[in-house]
Amino acid sequence: MNPRKIAVVGGNGQLGSDVVEAFAGKGVIYSLTHQDLEVSALDSVATCFRALRPDIVVNTAALHHVENCERDPQLAYAVNAVGARNLAVVTQDLDAVLIHVSTDYVFDGHKARPYTENDLPLPLNVYGNSKLAGEHFVRTGNEKHIVLRTSALYGRQPCRAKGGDNFVDRMLRLGRERGEVRVVATETVTPTSTQDLARQIVVLSHAGCYGLFHATAEGSCTWHEFACEIFARAGLPVRCLIAGPNEFPAKVPRPQYSVLENAELKRAGLNQFRDWREGLHAYLEQTCIAVA
After folding, report:
1. Residue 150's beta-bridge partner residues?
2. Which residues are catalytically annotated?
């Protein structure tokens, strides 16, 4: 039996690099970057994949800087929506599975309890709307689709679209430099390790289950609570204060509560996620940061 061919779009990114690593030894892996294909151009996608003929395509590529999406909605839709459509069209033609990563920002945050896959999406911004459009294109364009909504990702590879630092690294840097940080407590999320999400993607790729899944770590916290846990676990004596209501005004509307419940993963007996604190602790240990 020939080994599976797995193509990871955005394979050099924060999530994509961990997906490539998680699939190591499980088939022939193609780590694809912007130099290999332009997702917003159908001809580029078709040429690339018809040459590779992958069995599975994992799409981690996206324009996810929220402010930049708001400034340039045409580009946001070209990458996040049309790009997803192009991948769906080509993978359907090749009879390949398409695993597409989406976001908790498809919700407006008014529910105040964890969202399940059955809840109605109502995005507040261009980013969320463009990602929701991408979901629809994938779900209608390829029968063998897996759409994964996730939240507050952080990983070892720098996130170039957001200036390099993830939230964990940025808090550690600021804490060491200043000894005191102020962090908002108005948004509740589920911080999710890209390594944990990558492992979940590998499990789903073997399961033969298709559809929409929420895929985040277990539990939830505010950004302030997340920062406090980072400093406590790293053993850094940093004063972690709650920012005032207008101290860091949001330039773009964001959901104040975007916690996801992995209901469909649990129903299928496939949920691999641990508590967000465990994922954070593992990240700190793997990145050689001294922990208490």
Report:
1. 103
2. 127
Neighbouring residues of 104: CB distance < 8 A, sequence distance ≥ 6:
115, 149, 150, 151, 152, 189, 190, 216, 255, 258, 259, 260
Q: Would you place residue 292 in the very low, low, confident or very high pLDDT band (cuts 50, 70, 90)?
A: very low
In a domain, 93, yes or no: yes
User: Is 244 within the bounds of a domain?
Assistant: no
Select the more confidently predicted residue: 198 or 286.
198
**pLDDT for residue 243:** 85
Which range is least confidently modeled, 182-186, 218-222, 270-274?
A: 182-186
CATH number at residue 44: 3.40.50.720
pTM above 0.85, yes or no: yes
Domain contains 236: no
Does residue 163 sit within a domain?
Answer: no
Q: Residue 47: which H helix or E strand, with range?
A: helix 42-52
